[in-house]
Amino acid sequence: MDDAPPANGPTPPPPAVGGAAPARVNGRPSGKALVLNATMEPLSVVPARRALVLVLGDKADVLHSNGHRYRSEHLDIDAPSVVRLRRFVRVPYRHRAALSRRGVFVRDEGACQYCGRSAENVDHVVPRSRGGPHEWENVVASCRRCNSRKMDRTPDEAGMTLRRQPFAPRAAFWLVVSVGWVDPDWRLYLGDALATG
Question: What is the CATH number of the domain that holds 139?
Fold first, then answer.
């Protein structure tokens, strides 16, 4: 027998965790959860249901909920938005986030660092052809117009001014980049990642 819903029928709820289906708020299922190490250091962002599995397995504690609930015959629990692991997980230490195009756009809030318009490109402040390094402190988001105007010159040579100096975000910044947005509950724990210097 085919379990697929009828073509014009309602979409079934997502598979349940332990038989529990998430409640919907404004038609949207529960989202993602920030996982913190036992030391409160941000580790990863996972689906809220994965975070719930950690909680139900006594591997993590809920610090914040997202307003959704998981319900079944034997379960009625808030969907987590932030969980803290009960045991410390060792991870390699990285002082800086890895440079990526998406990361530059997130750091620069999608705005051209020369004129403030919407950015479509990344630009090396000191062009690579002139020995400029490919690192956070030398890469900015830019619009096509400013990128074309600057060409293979420094901002001074092109008569352009940076709105702010580019900087290397902290290591946890990759969490913000991977998700593309920040849940308000996460800000307390991602403060270092969101720092501007």
Answer: 1.10.30.50
Count of structural domains, the chain: 2
Residue 76 within any structural domain of the chain: yes
User: pLDDT per residue over 52-81, tens digit each?
Assistant: 999 999 999 999 998 888 888 888 888 899
- The DSSP secondary structure of 21-53, one letter per residue, reads EE--BTTB---EEEEE-TTS-EEEEEEHHHHHH
CA distances from 81 to 19, 43, 66, 76, 166 (A): 20, 14, 5, 16, 31
Domain around 35: 21-85
The encoded tokens of residue 190 equal: 């991602």
Do the beta carbons of residue 173 and residue 193 sit within 8 Å?
Answer: yes
Residue 27 has pLDDT above 50, yes or no: no
* CB 142, CB 121: distance < 8 Å: yes
Which residues neighbour 120 within 8 Å (Cβ) at sequence distance 6 or greater? 142, 143, 144
Say what the pLDDT of residue 5 is.
40
- Which pLDDT tens digit goes with each residue over 108-163? 989 999 999 999 999 999 999 999 999 999 999 999 999 999 999 999 999 999 99
